[in-house]
Amino acid sequence: MQNRTNKNPYSQKPKKTLAEALRLFWANYLEVFIFFVCMAIISYWIYDQAASQYRWQWGRIWRYVGIFTDAGFKAGPLLEGLFLTLILTLEGLFFAIIIGLALCFARLSLSPVAQAFSRHIVSLIRNTPLLIQLFLFYYILAPIFSFSNFTSAVFTLALFEGAYLSEIFRAGVTSLPKAQWEASFSLGMSTPMTLRLVILPQALRNVLPSFSGQLISLIKDTSLVSAIAVADLTQKARALISETFLSFETWLLVAFFYFLLTGLVSIPAFIYARRQPKTR
């Protein structure tokens, strides 16, 4: 007897022809393509109109990004500021996640003292401007604990973004059904094990779009640390403008660097969201 395998006709997806693939591609990306073309045309028109009133000097700005010497590539002040901005973002994100998780679990705990403390701390941080918090931390707390301006910037950013992340994490945890906890406890898992293996992986996956948006906000908020003399990208740009008077070229290049950093965050999150199955 010959072995016959019964194949489910619904288990295999029908093959798409080239015409169907092109049609789906244009249906999904035609609007995006048209948008970027229109933005390019508008940007070129604004650039051309500005050229009639301002003499662009792009040839002078690139050496402040970096130059090639006999010893190799040497980073300029703008690239050094970009590197420091990246370090600020990574360190601030690391401590912001820790603070956000701590405030989240304090809010979800059974202790009324921990709940009240977390609620008031989050409310205080979210309802005051980040620039005011930078000044308060740098001029009041930093001299007491002998913190540098860079350390003050990192911890202020971490505290500010951690308050927002705590609400994002809390929304992700509370959105999961209680049956997840009950099933884990019925299997003999402890509370820390349940959080680490069951709750947090699902919660972090659910809050990824909001988390990526907050990370983008953190990248842009690093520009405020120049107010306490941290040599980030914005501070380097201000010093460069005062030296060369290349205001438009410098700020356009700085805006491109910030756009590049935020794009490195938003594009993976967008791809991940597109790959998730759609619920009906």
Overview of the structural elements:
The chain has 280 residues and is mainly alpha-helical. It has a domain at 92-274: MetI-like fold (Orthogonal Bundle), CATH 1.10.3720.10. The chain has helices at residues 18-51, 58-61, 77-108, 112-126, 130-145, 149-174, 178-186, 191-206, 208-221, 233-244, 247-275; strands at 66-69, 72-75. Strands 1-2 form a two-stranded antiparallel ribbon. A hairpin with a 2-residue loop joins strand 1 and strand 2 (72-75).
Q: What secondary-structure arrangement, pairings included, does this model have?
A:
Blueprint (H helix, E strand, L loop, with lengths): L17 H34 L6 H4 L4 E4 L2 E4 L1 H32 L3 H15 L3 H16 L3 H26 L3 H9 L4 H16 L1 H14 L11 H12 L2 H29 L5
Antiparallel strand pairs: 1-2
Helix pairs in contact: 3-4, 3-6, 3-10, 4-6, 5-6, 6-8, 6-9, 7-8, 9-11, 10-11
Report mean pLDDT, rounded to a whole number.
Answer: 83
Helical fraction equals over 70%
How many runs of DSSP E, i.e. beta strands? 2
The largest β sheet comes out as: 2 strands, antiparallel
- Beta-strand share of residues: under 5%
- Total count of helical runs of at least 4 residues: 11
Main β-sheet, spatial strand arrangement = 1-2
CATH topology of the domain at 92-274: MetI-like fold
Silhouette:
globular
End-to-end Cα distance:
44 Å
Return the CATH class of the domain at 92-274: Mainly Alpha
Summing up helix and strand content along with how strands pair, one would put the structural category as mainly alpha
The name of the CATH superfamily of the domain at 92-274 reads: MetI-like
Radius of gyration: 25 Å
Low-confidence stretches: none
- The appropriate CATH architecture of the domain at 92-274 is Orthogonal Bundle
- Following the backbone from N to C, one meets helices and strands in this order, namely HHEEHHHHHHHHH
